[in-house]
Each structure stands twice: as C-alpha cells, then as structure tokens.
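Two records follow; treat each independently.
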Amino acid sequence: MTTTTQSKEKAEPVAAPSEISLRDWFATHALGFGFDWTNVHETGGYSEAAQVAYEIADAMLAERDKP
C-alpha cells in the first residue's frame, strides 16, 4: 500500500510497512483524527484510544469493500 505525504516541494510516496495489516495501518492513522490526547495519559485512556482507532479502521475497511 502506498500513500503520499505533502511537502513544500512535492508529494512523495510513503509505503506502509508490510509487517502490519491494512486494519492496523488504518488504526494507526486513525489515532490522529479527532481524539483528544490532552488528558489521555492522566485518565488511562490508552485502551479507549486503541478501541476507537480500531472502530474507525473497521469502518474504513467496510467502506472500502462497498461496490
């Protein structure tokens, strides 16, 4: 799988590591979307963050499989 990153000069392809599943890759990237990280270390919310990330990843995979 390949994605792109934006730099000031041009977009450069970045490959996802082959050792992880697409679900894991989506979950990793989902961690950056809208999750409030300000108190997660104080509240022990890491499990919640992981759960939400995988829920988002599962939704992304379901959308991907639609015709």
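The next record belongs to a different protein.
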Amino acid sequence: MAEQRTDFFDLVRERRAELNISLRELELRAVDPETNQQAKRPWISKVENGTADVPTVVQLRALAAGLALPVRVLQEAAAAQFLDFSTQVWSEDRTTRVLAARIEDMSDEERRQLADIAETFARRKTQREGKSDD
C-alpha cells in the first residue's frame, strides 16, 4: 500500500517553525485578504498534526497570508498531498517552489536579472568544482 503524502501538512508545520511563531500568532496572521475570514487555531493544529481534511480556497489564502508565502505554494502542496497531482514546477524543496511562484509576479527585466544571477552561480560552481578536481 502506498504511503500517504504529507506535503501540505509538512509545509505548514515547517514554515511556522521557521517563522518561530506560535499557533496563536499564526491564527492572528492567517486572514484571507479577500474575505477577511480567519484560519482558526484548532484547524491549523489539525493540519500540523496531519488530521485535517482538504483545505478550502479561503483557508489556503488565509494560511498563505499567515505564513508569508505565495498562495500558489500552498495550493501546489495541497494538490500534491490530497490529489496526488504535481505541477511541472513541483520540487521537494520549498525555496524552489517559492522562487517559481514569485517569478510570475516579476517583470520581464526582473526575470532576466534573476536568470543572469542563476547563470553566474552555476558558472562559479562549475569553476569551483573544476579547481577541486585538480
């Protein structure tokens, strides 16, 4: 039997720990900017404990606000966990997912600059690895 995925649950738990905030603080921050509905602490606790049901769009937007993440990152984690659906941009690494989600909000010039930065890092890594092989 396949093991149940926990992408969404893990993301929420790990991000709250990374922000070093309590469940109460997350509840206060987790307000959907479109409806002003708040994600309640008992539900957030169920998410972190792995017992919550599939989140609603309102809950995802509220958590995104509370966790200071793009809503797309939470949507993709929920889709991966509950629907066994992964986008082409999916990565186990949260930083990669956040970068991919933020890119859509960038101008063409900003995306070119970010691509240049990535290429510079890749060249430096290759140079370092080449020197260490000598």
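Discussion point: Residues 106-132 form one domain. How would you locate this feature using only the token line?
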